[in-house]
Amino acid sequence: MTNDPNDEFMLTNRSKVVSKKQMTLMERLYLPAIANGMRITFSHIFKRKATVQYPEVLRPIAPVYRGLHVLKRDEAGAERCTACGLCAVACPAEAITMTAAERKKGEENLYREEKYAAVYEINMLRCIFCGLCEEACPKEAIFLTDRIIPSNYGRNGFVFGKDKLVETMDNPVDVTKRQTPAVIEFKKDKFHQHNITINDLVDLGEH
Amino acid sequence: MPIVTIDDFQIEVPEGTTILNAARMIGGDLVPPAMCYYSSLKGSGGYCRTCLVKVEQGSAKDPRPMPKLVPSCRTTVMDGMVVRNETSPEVVEARAGVTEFLLVNHPLDCPVCDQAGECHLQDLGYKHGKLDTRSEFRRRTFEPIDIGEKVKLHMNRCILCYRCVKVCEQITDGRVHGVIGRGDHAEISTYIEKAIDNDFSGNVIDVCPVGALTDRTFRFKSRVWYTKPLEAHRNCDKCCGKVRLWYQGEEILRVTARKDEFGEVAKLENGEAGWICNECRFDKKKTSDWVIDGVTHVDRHSVISANHYETPEGERFDDEKTEQRSLPHGEKVELGVGALDPNNV
Q: What does B167-178 look like in DSSP terms, one character per residue?
């Protein structure tokens, strides 16, 4: 098929005739073009680098950055999550799944409420880090942090269970910068029943 | 027959009908909420005061207004009565006050409670509740106890509506369940910790407006909005056998009686309430035990409708261009434009 616009077999009239202009002598030498390209390349050596040597060097990120989640413990070390499922129902990517279990007698120092999450999994490949789980949580249990999800070769490695999400007692994750002053004030108020910890009950002699 | 006007809607009702039932006959937003009244339980109602309404005109013969707000579940209509529900600011204020009273001792444990999502007190608090409590006293607390093998009693959550007591009195023979103590000390109890072993005792779970009486076989299994309700029946020699199955995946997590739009156990064709027996409720948890009748219609505003892609009466679609399609269960459901288009799947 030809490129002739008058050809009756043309389906559209949008095709263009290729220009076959002869190059000049200077263009045929290629040397000026090469020199110009090298000038641009070498000039970048003296400019500031756009890359950083991760993980030795970290870019500064905002304290409210939405990265890897953490499941918080309370002051006494009990897990705050009560497996209410509000994070999962708020999650637009359906990344969160959980199985609840009932707290037994003697486990009061491990779990804050009568019910706790026996299994809590976030699929980090599904997660879009929107932070809606953090907003939905009524127990201030889940927070997004300024940590980055490590890379992995397998898909299964991106399903984070409680072993990776729950903070450890000796290495607590600071989320105070994510909380508004009003929230911090509200948490201090022992007038609200859900702020009362096991320690407070011990102090009051009710436990 | 007396004609009554409720929120500017007129209806003619039989003699002796209560205002609440007259409002329910009209239906819609003007129905007062009820926490203790239960149409199929005799003598229920009059405890909770959530159904208070204003009577602007007592009757045609005596048009004076009633001096105080009246409980609509206990007040019968008179000819020419004019009633205001939430169109009266007085009623709205009173209802907020009643809600506050009901919540004085009720714990804030909806994240833990199995009733959350289908709790009448949650709905009431959402609509009329205040964000804060003004009570300066500690809430009264109890340890949760097991009433028999299948029912859990969280006395913390109880609002003393007496519905479960009426069930034990009227549905089961030989009452083993009642209220002991008075005033602030009143609590639901089986007499001397005697377990309920009657065939119909499980119905106390269905009538409980809050999460005080819950199903131990469903305890903490899932949240209600992750389960999918289906209507089903089986031939049961003890009860009507018409139930609602709550599925999660292939598994039946819970069996309840069918509920009507007012949250009460739905009436059968013969006008009696469709109570179900404990065998149907607790022991038949295999799909092979049941004949599935169809999908339960869940109100679009209910959290249970989250992720349920049923299209009730074409509600999610805008206009008149809906087409009928019969589901495998034989139930007619209206579908929107292009729902049958294979390219649209």
A: HHHHTSSS--EE
